[in-house]
Write a structure and sequence with these properties.
The complex is a heterodimer of chains A (about 80) and B (about 160). By secondary structure, chain A is an alpha+beta fold. In chain A, about 25% of the residues lie in helices and about 25% in strands. Chain B is an alpha+beta fold and about 160 residues long. The chains are: A alpha+beta (about 80), B alpha+beta (about 160).
Amino acid sequence: MNKILFFAELQENVGKESIEIEAAGQSIKQLKEYIEQEYNLSKVHQSMTAINEEFAPNDETIKEHDTIAFIPPVSGG
Amino acid sequence: MSRHYCITEEPISIEKTVSLVTRPEAGAVNTFIGTVREITQGKRTLYLEYQAYKSMAEKKLMEIGEEISEKWPEAETAIIHRTGRLEIEDIAVVIAVSTPHRADSYEASRYAIERIKEIVPIWKKEHWEDGEEWIGNQKETKAYAAGKPEEEDIS
């Protein structure tokens, strides 16, 4: 299983901080497409993605137990 | 996680942050203090709400500290960022950089705040009298994992 984390606007749109799904073997891009359809969340495509707390490109393949976080444009400081 | 790079829900002590980097070798300590502004582009903010992906954010703050050490080898850095509800004038972030000579401390401090706005997963939500919104992309740039936009990012 994989834990998927949502933050900021994405979290409010999904209505949850996280979900658990089986995403191993998929690319980040494929996962984004799934999330877009499942939650009507086109904004997921404007997000960066982190796998296990490190930024990852869209073509990276998700492994079993990886934690995926969608990172909308940041606004700290 | 190191005391030098923290995300906290508590008010930030400027003095404690500075004391993390003071040392005999330093002749300068530069502090940057980011506070909650009331008026942004003519609009009155009532309060802000900061959210962080805490574990990753602390790692990224530490990474900024490491980048600073590469660019300014004699610098020592501490960065504390607050989350939760913040009122106008509250302190959101304190950066302290100590260096042997003053020029480096100014430059490294500026570098730290610019990098925070690129790579650290922290978000702020502005609350106004007539609404609220998560703010993103303040630098009008995105921080791309690969250092440049991917094809998917452009489309």
